[in-house]
Amino acid sequence: MTATNHRWRKAKNVLMQALALVCAVLVILPLLLVFFHLLSQGASSINWAFFTQLPKPVGEVGGGMANAIVGTFILMALASLLGVPVGVLGGIFLSEYPHRRLNRWIRFTADVVNGVPSITWGMVVYGLVVVPMKGFSTLAGAVVLGLMMIPLIMRTTEEVLQLVPIGYREAALALGIAQWRMIAQIVVRTAMKGIVTGVLLALARVAGETAPLLFTAFGNLYWTHRLTEPIAALPLQIFNYAISPYDDWHRQAWAGALILIFLVSVINLGVRVLTRDRFSRTVPQILIPGHHVATNVQPPHGITS
Amino acid sequence: MDNHFETGLEFLRQKLLLMASRAETAVNDSVQALMQRNYDLAMKVRADDDIIDQFEMEIDEMALQLLTKAPLAGNLRLVTVAMKVSQNLERIGDEATKIAKRACDLSQEPPVKLVLDLPRLAGLAVAMVKDALDAFVQRDSRAARAIVPRDREVDALNREMQAALTQHMVEHPETIPRCLHWIVAAKSLERIADHAKNIAEEVVYLCEAQDIRHLLKKPAPASRSID
Amino acid sequence: MSNPHMESQADHRIALAVRGLSIFFGSHAVLKNVTLDIAARSVTAIIGPSGCGKSTFLRAINRMHELNPGARMEGQVRLFGEDIYARGVEPVVVRRRVGMVFQKSNPFPTMTIAGNITVGLRLNGVRDKRILAERTEESLRMAALWDEVKNRLHAPAISLSGGQQQRLCIARALAVQPEVLLMDEPASALDPQATQKIEDLIVELKKDYTIVIVTHNMQQAARASDFTAFFYLGELAEFGPTTKIFTNPAQKRTEDYVTGRFG
Fold this sequence. Notes:
The complex is a heterotrimer. Chain A has helices at about 5-40, 50, 65-95, 100-115, 120-135, 140-160, 165-175, 180-205, 210-215, 235-240, 245-275.
């Protein structure tokens, strides 16, 4: 091991570290660009009116996106009513009653469906809900978003439940606790943080969906009072304003986009807060071969925010 | 990969056999010195007793070390038997030394005119020692069991000799010191036979895990715990 | 201590009568025709090389092997005279009478110490707070853990050390008042001091419970058990008082295993 050899290895080390740093920066750069661009374009349009007022008629300056902001929340809440129970229970079924051939097909279908383009979802729900109801509606919007959430939540729930070490299940069964009680009170309770994470990530994903809402919720320039009426939503509003010829609307579209990305960021921040490793670990760390142990619950692969 | 523990056990066995052969030699030499009035041989036996004592200490230490490794079953029995056998061999060595001392004293004085069957007593004792050690080497439990009753014959012969010598001392008081030497020598031979019997009993325990000690005595009342 | 099951321990001398027990996973026979009697209020150790079926045997006693899909059993297991595999007997009921402690301690992480102890009771419908509190103290005392945790019963269970966690699991199993306690290598993940405590605990517990313990540690079996069963390749090779097995086993393969010549 000569001195020059050592120096060359050190130099190589430094070079690779620099390269890795550059790549990391390149990854973050687009995100920063988006943020700053949105901020520069939209921050000026954020004012109290934006949050409280309805859109003004075409041509008039001013107004806000109050109904779109509220509409997005309403749609997410209603979609959760459909997506969360079905998704979580489906995930529990896949994880805790695993030895059936049916499971393989369910998982396969869920994975395929996860990859279905969102516009296709919109069209499907158009045919299933909008046409029979003879009109666009909040309900249709909630249904399409909920349906999109189901496979996401189901898979993340299943993966998170699988991370719960088998030892807990066995210990509970050995105490003479019935299986369904064991699943509800021990397994699901232990994995709760992970399940909530999965739900939040699914919410963050559907919060920004535009295409499906085009065919279902359709958008509304006024407040919505009934489930059967169309409803405004941020992505929809942004879309409509952006393709319009009016500068004022363009300005508001930027503001809307900023709000939307802020909303999604808050959800993701919530996920980070939930999954942080506190000083008192929630899952024991002792490793025995054959037992699967998680130290904290990370969002599974395939789910991007 | 070698089993280090088994190697240790084998070392213990070998050491025990070395000690045994020295003890056997001491007995043989001391009896020969006594019969042939060989002063030098007797002195040699007395000098070599230290070596036998040293063996006992080394074997006990090795056994203790092996016990810390918590041997079980046959290995456990081997270690505990080794400790007991080494103790018996050491005593045999001591008794051989006593015979040698008496041989030294007797060789300096004129022989006693008495027909004694000491050679036969000595022969029986020496044979018992040899057979017991052979049984240990061969792990032959049957042969070991056969040794135990022979002790009775030795005891009987010793009593005969004590009686004859006592009689002679009464009739010829000038021979008393020399006869006392003979009495002591005979007693030592009887003791050597006892120790050989003990070794045989330990061999039976090693091979069969049966404790055959004290079986021929009258059974004592069953001990009751005091609580 | 009012335990309706304890009367059966006093009446019967045999806690578990196993006859011709065979367990198959698919077509593979893991246990072959095992017959033995486990005495009440004693500690029976199960020893043998890896893969000899000792854990499977243990799990057959509280029907935990049924968690394995494709598991099939033949033969009979009687718990104080009652067939635990009879038609209509629910595994859940069997498991309340036969408790189990595992190799890796597994206190439920989302619950407190007290919560862990009472979970077996609560999830089986016991709501009376007074009973729960009584059993908590009783079980923790039996597991020799009461003095160490009595002032922090509401601390998270995972804040305890490894040895304490294992004793907590033992207390948790005792809280449902089983008649038999099965232990699958309970001390193998613990340091020597903690192991010693567990062994002392086992010797104490046998006054009231029948204990069956699987161990790969011969010294532990020799220290803590009254009877020892040696399993080899799925069969019961030898069974007898511990002293006999460890000073003078009847079979050569038992002797070879016990002296470390294989396994």
